[in-house]
Amino acid sequence: MKKIFNFGRKKGQSPPRPFIKLPSYFGVQTPYPTEGYQIRSKDLGKIHKAALLGDVAKVQQLLLLGKSTVNDLDKMKRTPLHLACANGYPDVVSLLVERKCELNLLDNDSRTPLIKAIECQQEECATILLEHGADPNLGDSKNNNALHYIASGRTKFMAEKLIKHKIDIEAKNKEGFTPLLLAITTMNTEMADFLLKNGANVNALDSCKRTALMIAVSVESIALVTLLLQNNADYTLQDIAGWTAQTYAERYGYPLHIYHKQIEKQKELYNTCSSQISCSEKASSTGFALGAPSLDKKEESSAEESISRLSDNPGPDDHLPSTDKELDFDTESKKKEKQKRNTKQNKAK
């Protein structure tokens, strides 16, 4: 099975760039989920054909005559509800729900009707299911829940509604990806921002202990790196190879040093921690997940200033770039340092 990342686990070994296409556990090899089902007539029963076409009258007739039931499975283990949701027929969905169909049965790909409605962006069908008690936390065979499917796209389609229905925002699939980590991998900035605003752990780790910041640096997304640092991503964490976000930046030529003011402030907070108080208490009191102890009142004021500088309106000295045009990989400071070295060498001669 292809993985988004697939580097060796020896300490110090260079991790490769992430594989941006969706992994095979989404059942596709394209950047976006494939909508609908692949349909073969020979796989379908009569009620499945009617549901597939949105023929409410035919579905009702088959049920009344007792020739079919609401939970009949076709040869691919799809119920009429799966097919109606995938193709966007809310009237058929409503009829099946009224007739007490099972809402959480799994098809041959281990997907519920709700996941199929989300994947195919059939909001009305998905809403009916949620309002009638469909379980949003059921995952597919690789433990991807509905938020994973949304994160793999380019929007935050229905994410807010799923949060209201208590979906697990920190659920991990078999690769260890939370919805946030997957949103970062597929560069779904809108979804990443939404998840962070709704309490997603900015320092969540995948199965190889990679953080969202490491992934954002690897895919060279300025907007995502900026977003994560504004949300106090911990740049000191190490993956299984002992690499930090800075190591990734050096590997891929990403100019993480342009954020030096924000990073230096985090270092200052880290170094001034009191040894009497636990690291976790410090992290919770300041919002920085750096694993260092808490601050006294004076230092807390400094921490608040640091956090405010990472707000949506940073000052001129703490400007965070948000577009490719604002990134100069050969920065002015580097040029000046080079000129100074050349001047010293000329004088020495």
Distance between the termini: 60 Å
Percentage of residues in strands: under 5%
Largest sheet: none
Unreliable parts:
1-12, 16-34, 274-335
What is the strand tally?
0
Helix content: 40-55%
Overall 3D form? elongated
CA gyration radius, whole angstroms: 25 Å
Order of helices and strands: HHHHHHHHHHHHHHHHH
**Class by helix and strand content?**
mainly alpha
Q: What's the number of helices? A: 17
Q: Summarize model confidence as the mean pLDDT.
A: 76
Biased composition (Basic and acidic residues): 316-335
Organism: Sarcophilus harrisii (Tasmanian devil)
Region (Disordered): 290-349
Biased composition (Basic residues): 336-349
Notes on the protein architecture:
- The longest helix is centred in the C-terminal third of the chain and has 17 residues, at 332-348.
- The termini are far apart.
- The protein has a domain at 221-329.
- The chain is elongated, with a radius of gyration of 25 Å.
- 39% of the residues are buried.
- Helix 4 (90-98) runs parallel beside helix 6 (123-131), helix 11 runs parallel beside helix 13 and helix 14 packs antiparallel against helix 16 (297-309).
- 44% of the residues lie in helices and 0% in strands.
- It contains 17 helices and no strands.
- The chain has 349 residues and is mostly helical.
- The chain has helices at residues 46-53, 56-64, 80-87, 90-98, 113-119, 123-131, 146-151, 159-164, 179-185, 189-197, 212-218, 222-230, 245-252, 260-271, 279-286, 297-309, 332-348.
